[in-house]
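Give me the fold.
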Amino acid sequence: MFSDKQKPRTMNEIGGQPNRIEKNTKIKGDIVSEADFRIDGKLDGNVKTSGKVVIGKGGYIHGKVECVNADIEGSFNGELMVSDLLSLKSSAVIEGTVAVTKLAVEPGATFNAACTMKGKGGIGSNASSGSGLKPSLSGNANNKNEPAKAS
């Protein structure tokens, strides 16, 4: 009557609370983690995680980030490699190069980056921030297919 199968646990359930760099904290160096990471302070260096990276509204990263998912409200300058979903909130400022599978951009976000979109098979097609977007990027049928703003 009861199933012995357990649902898979997320990284947050396994490791507890995500790692955090709080506001008014500045770090120089590289971070490697298997858990989620939230940055509300400043990081000058690289982050590599098999979890999610969140840059809070006051957060800033200058360097290279490799992760599965990312939510950005703050600022990023460097190389960003997201193997699944990159979500840019309206206050986000992105500069540099971005490689991503799925991209969601809220109106008001600043996206000044060379972007490579990878398909399900991992075969990428290059698109710069000034080129048009594919019709169903965020899965919303009411999306307007407008190019990103260039400064």
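The helical segments are 11-15.
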